[in-house]
Write a structure and sequence with these properties.
The chain is of the alpha+beta class. It has 3 domains: 72 residues, no CATH class; 109 residues, DNA Methylase, Chain A, domain 2, CATH 3.90.120; 35 residues. It is built from 8 helices and 7 strands. It has a 4-stranded antiparallel beta sheet with strand order 5-4-6-7, with no helix packed on it. A 3-stranded antiparallel beta sheet has the order 1-3-2. A hairpin with a 5-residue loop joins strand 6 and strand 7. Helix 3 crosses helix 7. The two termini are 57 Å apart.
Length: 242
């Protein structure tokens, strides 16, 4: 993270954004960079479910202060599992979803399809279940993609393992769309770049002297080249340089 943000700073990019798991080390790293460069670096830990994604996904977004400010001001847009599946044209195999974890009392962590789903991970799919927690089956790659906000026509890798890895490691399209919308809005509202300072006036006669010196240098190079040709052709055995 530090290297990537430093690259942005060194290159002077006016628009940029990054997404990463919000571990304490990552948050501390980006917060330090934001303190060092308050006019160029800002960050926000958000839940993608607030931006139209059908599953929870807490991530850190680093970007320019204008983009982060706009993300904070966007209205919350929650999408349930049922709504995400309806948008993708998929049927609901069950009324509940459970994760691969359990509550402290040993019962499975479950949610109704009228809520956003648990986080879609790259390692294990979520599970369809009954109200009592009985397993129905695992979610398919296409169903996991629907919970991440991918359109039905999106081309996914073949194979359940490769497909789930791609979906579980992705930035949800609705969140990416929100970040891009904020970046475009920030770019349009940014003040125009200041005009370049005028070139210093050239003293009278300076252009003529510069052109004369350049022409003299070209003539010297031409003479050297002519002498080299003469030597190669045996017409002149003299020195090659002036």
């Amino acid at each position: 993270m530090r290297w990537c943000v430093q690259l942005v700073l060194d290159k002077g990019y006016a628009s940029w954004s990054m997404e990463n798991v919000a571990t304490p080390a990552v948050v501390a790293c980006v917060a330090e960079l934001a303190r060092q460069h308050p006019d160029r670096v800002a960050h926000l830990t958000l839940d993608a479910a607030d931006y139209g994604v059908g599953s929870n996904r807490v991530r850190l977004i680093a970007s320019t202060p204008a983009v982060i400010r706009a993300l904070k001001e966007m209205p919350v847009q929650r999408v349930s599992v049922a709504e995400a599946f309806a948008a993708a044209g998929l049927p609901l195999p069950a009324e509940y979803i459970k994760s691969n974890t359990s509550n402290r009392d040993g019962t499975p962590c479950m949610r109704s399809t009228q809520q956003p789903a648990f986080t879609v991970t790259a390692s294990h799919p979520l599970i369809w279940c009954t109200r009592a927690g009985a397993t129905v089956r695992c979610l398919t790659v296409a169903e996991s993609a629907a919970l991440m906000g991918f359109p039905p026509e999106w081309k996914l890798p073949l194979g359940s393992r490769a497909g789930l890895r791609a979906v579980g490691n992705a930035v949800p399209p609705p969140l990416a769309r929100a970040v891009m919308a904020c970046a475009v809005a920030a770019a349009r509202s940014a003040p125009p770049a200041p005009p370049a300072p005028p070139a210093p006036p050239v003293p009278p006669g300076e252009p003529e002297r510069g052109a004369s010196n350049e022409l003299a240098g070209l003539r010297r190079k031409l003479r050297r080249l002519a002498r080299r040709v003469d030597v190669l052709e045996g017409r002149n055995r003299g020195p090659l340089d002036d």
